[in-house]
């Protein structure tokens, strides 16, 4: 029998559940009860830790950020630039089935966030995740000798194309769209190096 969860473990479990529910159902359709059910915890615990729905959105974005930052740091830190970039695209490949099924959790939440000021801090977290992806790629290109402004532009182009392919693959329920785009992006990145 598992022991009781600490308060922080419950919060983490609820934040992950919020991310999954919002990814699956969208922010506007997500409910406190759905988050509680996903986490396997009472709804009262959701209200206690996240008194407002936008607190759940922020927690979901923090969860995404908490996964991406260490992942980017762990990509072949001792490898060559080519090896790091190849592993980055391996990671994108590994995410493909869920992206085709559900779209991108970060993009889904960012699109669903209401435009009012209550969501500015949450929006900033999501934007920083996209910035981190672009910056990571730009850093690789700079390490290979590219000028920093061009490196940032190329990093942004890769993320834009990947996100666009996720949207189309999800809308068409066609994995080949995303597989083809990731392979083309992989080749493009290697040529840029």
From TrEMBL:
A GO MF term: DNA binding
Pfam families, A to Z: TetR_C_13_2, TetR_N
DNA-binding stretch(es), residue numbering of this chain: 31-50
Domain named HTH tetR-type: residues: 8-68
Keywords: DNA-binding, Transcription, Transcription regulation
InterPro entries named in the record: Homeodomain-like_sf, HTH_TetR, Tet_transcr_reg_TetR-rel_C_sf, YxaF_TetR_C
Protein name: HTH tetR-type domain-containing protein
Source organism (scientific name): Thalassospira profundimaris
């Amino acid at each position: 029998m598992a022991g009781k969860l600490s308060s922080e473990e419950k919060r983490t479990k609820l934040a992950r559940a919020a991310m999954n529910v919002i990814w699956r159902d969208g922010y506007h359709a997500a409910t406190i009860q759905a988050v509680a059910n996903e986490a396997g915890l009472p709804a009262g615990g959701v209200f206690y830790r996240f008194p407002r729905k936008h607190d759940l959105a922020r927690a979901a974005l923090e969860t995404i950020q908490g996964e991406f930052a260490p992942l980017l740091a762990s990509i072949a830190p001792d490898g060559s630039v080519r090896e790091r970039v190849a592993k980055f695209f391996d990671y994108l490949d590994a995410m493909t089935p869920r992206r085709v099924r559900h779209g991108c959790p970060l993009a889904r939440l960012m699109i669903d966030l209401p435009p009012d000021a209550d969501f500015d801090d949450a929006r900033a977290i999501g934007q920083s995740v996209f910035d981190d992806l672009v910056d990571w790629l730009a850093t690789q290109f700079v390490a290979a000798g590219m000028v920093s402004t061009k490196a940032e532009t190329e990093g942004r182009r890769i993320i834009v194309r990947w996100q666009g392919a996720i949207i189309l693959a999800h809308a068409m329920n066609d994995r080949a769209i995303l597989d083809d785009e990731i392979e083309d992006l992989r080749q493009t990145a290697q040529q840029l190096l």
